[in-house]
Amino acid sequence: MPTTAPTGPAPGLAAYADVTTSDATLRRFLHGLPGVDQVGAEARAAALGTRSIKTTAKAWALDLAIRMVDLTTLEGQDTPGKVRALASKALRPDPADPSCPSVAAVCVYGDLVGDVKAIVGDAVNVAAVATAFPSGRASMEVKLADTRDAVANGADEIDMVIDRGAFLAGRYLQVFDEIVATREACARADGSHAHLKVIFETGELQTYDNVRRASWLAMLAGADFIKTSTGKVQPAATLPVTLVMLEAVRDFREATGVQIGVKPAGGIRTTKDAIKYLVMVNEIAGDDWLDPDWFRFGASTLLNDLLMQRTKMTTGRYSGPDYFTLD
Amino acid sequence: MAFEYAPAPESRSIVDIKPSYGLFIDGEFVDGRGTSFKTINPATEETLAEVAEASEADVDLAVKAARRAFRGWSRMSGKERAKYLFRIARILQERGRELAVLESIDNGKPIKESRDVDVPIVAAHFFYYAGWADKLDYAGLGPNPQPLGVAGQVIPWNFPLLMLAWKIAPALACGNTVVLKPAETTPLTALLFAEICQQADLPPGVVNIVTGAGSTGQAVVGHPDVDKVAFTGSTDVGKAIARAVAGTDKKVTLELGGKAANIVFDDAPIDQAVEGIVGGIFFNQGHVCCAGSRLLVQESVADEVLSRLKRRMGTLRVGDPLDKNTDIGAINSAEQLARIRELSDIGESEGAERWAPPCDLPSSGFWFPPTIFTGVTQAHRIAREEVFGPVLSVLTFRTPAEAVEKANNTPYGLSAGVWTEKGSRILHMASQLRAGVVWANTFNKFDPASPFGGYKESGYGREGGRQGLAAYLKGADL
């Protein structure tokens, strides 16, 4: 995963510099993006969901999906013991099968980063939620302090939330500035920066037009990843929302040359669902995104279902849940 | 790293194709007196079955059987007729997978379409008209409406079972009996439907299926004891039928060709519009009378729409119709493939620019890649003639008025599509376009409750909805 900060904005991105000079220009730009027809977008997502992924294709997809998991626990009751267990699981999801890959990252609250790091070292990334997760309701100083704290604790990736209130009130430049400031707060002393994922909480933005606008806004502000949800609001990730975001990163790369990752999070619990997402990545954004550097699943229970399916593929038999670790 | 989808073929074992099929007359399968013919799988050219050809005498027997059955069927209460139709609808659903697989084998269409589009709409059509059977008095078509008698119905090969449903369901609901001729290249699902009629204990003679080619169709249409002719197919044959029945008291509905404009404005939801363009022309290999075969795109977004369209076409999967991941199946016949090739070559020689994504086509069977022509003008033959294949002509326009003018500048008028986020523009366009169906921000959507039919050379009469009843009742012209 690239963790060094680019030396300056990509040449393609420079063309968009004047878009973010004022609230008015940013608003004009975001509202000038082509609309999303809800019925059409949902029909397209549903149609891709009927792809039939079997045998070798399924085996390939299962391993890829495991490698894309951001194994997550974001509870008030999280303890060092809990996150250490999760970290061990992230390293060796299936202790019985050494060929099983590790997951992409462990995602926890900022104060628990060190506990995870102690187990996983550099083998698996540690992601921390920050900026007054999950509501984002705090002053900018608090949000930035939250971010710096997580980075100082050793987080490789920061999952920030946008201020949905500001977005829905049309104060797009405020949201933009917050992302820019948070990205600066992700900087480390050695010049590198923690990878920034920007959470929209699409269940609160509600319309696909808003999802498309938020995607462009975050990408222009320097997000490395755009992420659907905190997991605390229903609906969390859905196929059509992710479809709109995949279209956005595809179009953004075409326009600027800069590739941005996508992370649906929350509500993805089964292998069947995970494979639908991978099909969508493949057919909407393209193969370049079929990599843990560019696509992640924010999930917890998904992993065991993937492992169960993986064991089924290799042994030909389904085993019960007791054969997989609960962490 | 590329995501290669492994083959995911739907099993053929659910269908039992017999080596030979007779005609379905008076509730029984009987031998035909014509020269039997073969039906093949267009994806492999393998012979599927030998099918009887109905001679004029066979058609006469079928019409006589239908006439005998008409006495009982037309006097039966609507509630009782509805029971049969509901039963047929349920059996269609129960045997849905079998019908879908058989349709894909005989027609060449991808299983995902026969499974998710054709068969569900077929069952829905029977359910819908079953519901009307005991409510005809309240259809707004006059008091105590009466059936016409025997309906002679001739259907095409592009949606074999669906067109059968569009014809038979309203006819039976209104108390008519039918003699139906399926297309010669796709008779198998109609013959399976005949078995379903037996399974449903439908009284003998209410539905008769006579297989054959053009001469059988002529015999059905021209039979003096046929009261109603319903045809779906080409405009040329439609005109011949109109001539044949002129001067008789037969009632006629014709659903013929089309050259629909799919109009994309600069304020359209572009990604969904691209999807609609793809679905509009490549659905069912473009073998769709209402296909959006002329893309009219506003010049200010033409480049963007075209580049997105080409990228999207690159992801279309052409191949084995029974593979669940196939998007585009086989062309239905060698004859149709030759016609598509001929018109495409003409397009090229007239100066339009041809483009198709790279795709490997199977070595046997009939295949044509999804193709677009750019730089097409109203003067090109590919912009005027119905190709009936996966071939899209792209034209541009500058203003809404020009879009309307170009869209209407065709001898056809079956359907049109409008893509814009502006609601008022949709309503304005719908009032200006001379087409039987105008889809807004979608395309190729069918529902039994929605009437379907054409303007101008696309035919007359409406099928579907309450309007579809009028075609099968006396004095009930809408």
Q: Could you name the key traits of this structure?
A:
heterodimer; A: 327 residues; alpha/beta; TIM Barrel; eight-stranded parallel beta sheet; globular; disordered N terminus; B: 478 residues; Aldehyde Dehydrogenase, Chain A, domain 1; Aldehyde Dehydrogenase, Chain A, domain 2; 2 domains; six-stranded mixed beta sheet; 14 helices
- CATH topology term of the largest domain in chain B: Aldehyde Dehydrogenase, Chain A, domain 1
Q: What string, H for helix and E for strand, traces the elements of chain A in order? A: HHHHEHEHEHEHHEHHEHEHEH
CATH superfamily of chain A: Aldolase class I
How many helices of chain B in DSSP terms? Answer: 14
Number of domains of chain B: 2
Number of strands of chain A: 8
Kindly estimate the percentage of residues of chain A that lie in beta strands according to DSSP. 5-15%
Provide the number of structural domains of chain A. 1
The rounded Rg of chain B comes to 22 Å
Which CATH C-level class of chain A is it?
Alpha Beta
Number of helices of chain A: 14
Beta-strand residue fraction of chain B: 15-25%
Mean pLDDT of chain A: 95
Largest interface: A-B, 29 and 24 residues
Q: Would you count the extended β strands of chain B for me?
A: 18
Q: What is the CATH topology descriptor of chain A?
A: TIM Barrel
| Residues in helix, % of chain A | 40-55%
Largest sheet of chain B: 7 strands, mixed
Shape of chain A: globular
Q: Report the CATH architecture of chain A.
A: Alpha-Beta Barrel
GO molecular function (chain B): aldehyde dehydrogenase (NAD+) activity
Family (chain B): Belongs to the aldehyde dehydrogenase family.
EC number (chain B): 1.2.1.3
Enzyme class (chain B): oxidoreductase
